[in-house]
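To make this tangible, we now present a fold written out as C-alpha cells:
***
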Amino acid sequence: MRINDCEIYQDDLKTSFEHVVDSNKIYKKIVMITGATGTIGSFIVDTLMRANRDKGSDITVVACGRSKSKLRDRFDFWKNEEKKGLLIYATLDILDDKLVDILEDDLGKDIAIDCVIHAAGNAYPSAFIDHSEETVKGNILGTKRLIDFAAKYGCKRFVYVSSGEAVSVKPEDEKVIMELYEKTAGNNLYDDYYREVLKLVVSKGARYCYPISKVAAEKMCLEKNDRNYSDISFLVVRPCHTFGPGITGDDDRAHVQFAQKAVHKENIILNSAGSQLRSYNYVADAASAILSVLSSGNKETIYDICSKDNVITIKGLAEIIGEVSNVQVVVNAPDERDAILQSPIKRQVLDASKLIELGWSSAFDIKSGVRHYIEILNYVGENKHGI
C-alpha cells in the first residue's frame, strides 16, 4: 500500500499545514526541496501537495533526489498535481561536482526558484562511520554548489536543515571552524574549507563528522547573509531527533530500528542502557516548524526544531513504541559495531523558545506521534514507500 493512501497520514499532512505560521506567505511560490525522499523532505513535499488540493495554495514544489524514478514512485499519488506543473522532479546528488549543470539540464535555464529547503545529506550513524569524508563533502561543498544555483535563479529564502547534533560541538571547536572559514571560504577557497574541516573531523573521530560538518555548513550559510548575497535570506534550522514514516532502507537510527521491530511484532532490542536524554519530534511537527521558519523566520537566528515537552530518554522512547505495539523491550550489551555507531552525546535537549516566538505550536506529543508512526507503518507494511 502507498503511504499517501493512508487516512491517518493524510490527516497528519493536513494538521501539519494548519500549524504553519503565516502559511499564506508561501502561496504561489516555487519551493525547491532537496532530500525529497527522506523522512523530513518527503513529508514536506506531501504537506505542500495536500495544501494545494485543500486550499488551492498554488505552491510549486521542485522535489530533488538522486533518482527521478524513485521520486516518481514515491510521489505518484500526486500525479494530477504533476500534470498541473505543481510538482517537478529534478536530479540532485550533493556529492556531484556538476550539481549546478545537472539541475540546469533538468529544469532549464528559464526556471525561477523562490525558496529552497536544503534537507539532503547523510543522516544516519553507519553513513557517518563508513562514509565520513562524503558526509563532510556533501554538507560543505554540496551546500555551496546549491547556494550558487539558488542565487543564480532568483532564490529569496534559503533554509539549511542542519541537525540538533550541532549543539554538541564544543565552543572551542566552533571557534576553530569560524577561523577556518575566515581563512578559506571567506576568501572563496571552499575546497580548502572542506579539506580543513575534514582534518578537524579526523582529529576528533569519524562519528563527529556529522555535527562538525553541519556547524561548518551553518557558518557558511549565516555568513552569506552579509557577503555578496544580499538578495537571499539564509536561515538555519536544527531538527531534534525526528521520527515518522518515510524511512529509507539504510537508515539505522535507534528509533527506526525500534519501529521496524515493532511492526514485525518482534521484541525491541536496546543495545545500550538507553539513558541518553533527547528531544524528539514527530515528523508532522518538524515539517510545520521548518515551513514556519521558511515563511516567517529571521535570517539572523538559528531555530531549534523541537517541542518543548517532548523530552525523553532513548529507552523511554523504546518503551513507548513497545507499549503502542504490544512488544517487549530487551536491553543487551552493545557489540563493537554498536558501540562505534552510538552517539557520544549524552544529553541533546533543544530549546523551542524561538519557534514559539514565531507563533508556532506543536500538534503531537511523543505518545500520539508514536501511535501515528506505528499505525502508518502497519498500514504500509513492508512496502518500500514506508519501511
Observations:
- The two ends are 11 Å apart (CA to CA).
